[in-house]
Amino acid sequence: MKIGIFAKTFSRPTIEDLFVAIAGYEIYSAQFNLSCVGLETLPTNVPDALARRVIDAAEHAKVELSAKDRTTAFEPCAAGKGILDFDYYLRNLRQTGFPGPLIIHGLQEEEVAFSRDFLRRSLAL
User: How far is the C-alpha of 71 from the C-alpha of 85, rounded, in Å?
Assistant: First the structure.
């Protein structure tokens, strides 16, 4: 199972820099939110040139666009620091044959390395 991340975790001046930052943490899958490029989270229209730029930037950084964000606010917590029993959760994901990435969400950038490493250890078990 791959580890992915919510792209809004990172604040960068360009979309290209954003995907480079994600890849810099050795994370190659992202849930993308259009607010990262200055649009509303759920805009009625995305200019073709902007969509192409997002796709190109992700491909250049070798980051897969796994999902488009459609979530609402919640109380976030870094992986390994909350109440979720990750061993139980990951065991159930494996049993179902879940093929998608496990997206880490709701972090501050300084929590990314801890959460990534926690999940890598948990997935290796």
Answer: 22
CA–CA gap between residue 92 and residue 114 (Å, rounded): 23
Question: In angstroms, how far is the first alpha carbon of the chain from the final one?
Answer: 12
Question: DSSP assignment, residue 45?
Answer: -
Residue showing tokens 């801890």:
114
pLDDT (tens digit per residue) in 68-106: 555 444 445 566 666 667 787 788 788 888 888 888 888
pTM for this one? 0.74
**CA separation (Å) from 59 to 40, 42, 108?**
23, 22, 24
d(CA 54, CA 19): 9
Rounded distance, CA 26 to CA 3, Å?
9
